Amino acid sequence: MQILGTILAPLRQDWGACSRRWLSFKHVNGMTIDGSGVLNGQGEDWWGELTSGCTGRPTVMIALLLKEARNFSTLAMFNVDLVMASGNDGQEEYASNIHVWNCTINGATGGVKIKTWTGGKGIVQGIIFEHIIVNQTNYPVHIDQHYYGSKEQPQAVKVHNVTFSDIHGTSTTENAIVLDCANIGCTDITLKEIGIESVDPNKPASTICNNVRGTGINFSPANSSCFN
């Protein structure tokens, strides 16, 4: 799929059935998304307390249950998150060989993110995020294996062989890099050539790591104890 123009999300009052997804790809094999276009989620309508109408904030682009060779390249994204999700309700799910590069993400809740529910089964592996610009993003680099605060369980989706490379920009909070893995651990994780600063001088950017094994090369904010 090639995006050359601007895809504009509906305003909140026009969201219709209150779907939690805008662009969603499921059970896809061998897909490439590229182009010089823009995805604009018009996220301002969803900020703050939502007490009426659609109250569940939607994710603009989400890739679910992908099998092989997905590529996302050369896109500008405004008020969107680029997310891979897996393992809800104890399901067995797989995502592998996904390459995301040359993207700009502006004003999003999350930047490049892998999220899994506790209690799931399967594996996420062979993922590369590189040449990414993040502007005023809450969680620019994020692995979240306790999605929505779900409690640790004996089983979890395995996260293996994931690279975050050449990612630069700004975070709206201190959560520049958060790698929160389940007790089974994320393995072969690489942070390379990353530089993210907080726009809030009262909340300096930080890197948080739990149960991570891998390698870090020239990444900032630095954390010498990140990898086990």
TrEMBL record:
Provide the family line. Answer: Belongs to the glycosyl hydrolase 28 family.
User: Can you name one GO molecular function term for this protein?
Assistant: polygalacturonase activity
Q: Which PANTHER family match?
A: PTHR31375
Tagged with keyword Cytoplasm: no
Task: Cite the entry's keywords alphabetically.
Answer: Cell wall, Cell wall biogenesis/degradation, Glycosidase, Hydrolase, Secreted
Native organism is Lupinus luteus
Q: Which GO terms describe its biological process?
A: carbohydrate metabolic process; cell wall organization
Is Secreted included in the keywords of this UniProt record? yes
Where is it chiefly localized? secreted
Name the InterPro entries on file.
Answer: Glyco_hydro_28, Pectin_lyas_fold, Pectin_lyase_fold/virulence
Matching Pfam families: Glyco_hydro_28
Specify the protein name. Answer: Polygalacturonase
Tell me where in or outside the cell this protein is found.
Secreted, Cell wall
